[in-house]
Each structure stands twice: as C-alpha cells, then as structure tokens.
Amino acid sequence: MAALDAFTTLLDPPMYVVTATADDGERAGCLIGFASQSSIHPARFTVWLSRANRTYRVACRASYLTVHLLTTEHRETARLFGEETGDEIDKFARVDWEPGYAGSPVLADSAGWFTGTVEARFDGGDHVGFLLSPVAEGRHDEAAGATGPGDTGPRLFVLSDADRFSPGHPA
C-alpha cells in the first residue's frame, strides 16, 4: 500500500481546536489538523477526530461541535488542547470560554469560531469525519486584522507551529 508522506510533507494546513458538549453535559476539546470546508451550497465543514482521543468519544454523543481557528498568538491554547488529555485534566478550567449555541464551548482565546450541527459521521480509518452544518459563528475583536492569506494581521496557527508538541493521546 502506498503511503502519503511524499505528498503530505508538502502541506502546512491550519490547526483547529474542536470543542464539544455531549448531550449529557460532558465537555471535551482537542487540537486537530484534519479539517476542511466540504460544501458551498449548502455550507458544510468536515472535521476528523482521532478514535484514540477523548474528544472523539464525547463528540459521538454530541449534537453540535464548535470549531476554532487559532493564530500564532494562541500558541498556549493550542498547546493545552494538543498536549493535554481531558482524561487527566479539565482543559476548560485553564481557559476563558463561554457556552455557545446549544452549550457548545466557545473559546475566548481564538481568532474565530463556528458551531455546526453534526449531520453525519464517516469512518476514515483511525479518524472519524464529522460533517457539520453551521448554525452560529463569531470572530474575536483581536483577530479583526486577520482576514486571510497575504494579510498583515496575525498569522494562522498551522501544523509546522505544532511540530514540537507531544500529543496528549499519541497514535
């Protein structure tokens, strides 16, 4: 079977923090690198969560997920959600957040976010895709200068910014 390393090593995608509140109230969140807009009309976005991650287990019991974009100014938030596991600590006790749409956690320390209804789940191997239909979105004031590629505002936090992180749940 062919590997993708020759292709994927050329990529440096944005990293996201995905948060979830299960229908029973349990919260979780993690740093992910596999995500993309997957439809324009209707608007859809897919995030891929590792089966090894606590957030995956909570997301399987959630009706909504919130996806956060980070900038390089949010490195410590990225580190917390990437290196720590909710199996051992309460990540939400260490960050400013508020309940968003349907109680899904919205992190104050992010450039922007959206909450989506979980429309479907897809088996992708060691990751499961969650197809989201947006129902709410927001942008934080400090990120107002970050409008996109080539902008002089804060730069998005990308995979290479996390290259020295030690995953909370190694593969």
TrEMBL record:
UniProt entry tagged with the keyword Oxidoreductase: yes
Pfam family, one: Flavin_Reduct
Keyword set includes Lipid metabolism: no
GO MF annotation terms: oxidoreductase activity
Keywords for the protein's UniProt record, in alphabetical order: Oxidoreductase
EC assignment: 1.5.1.-
Limits of the Flavin reductase like domain: 11-149
InterPro entries associated with the record: Flavin_Rdtase-like_dom, NADH-dep_flavin_reductase, Split_barrel_FMN-bd
EC category name: oxidoreductase
PANTHER family, A to Z: FLAVIN REDUCTASE (PTHR30466), POSSIBLE OXIDOREDUCTASE (PTHR30466:SF15)
Name of the protein described by the UniProt record: Flavin reductase family protein
Organism: Streptomyces wedmorensis
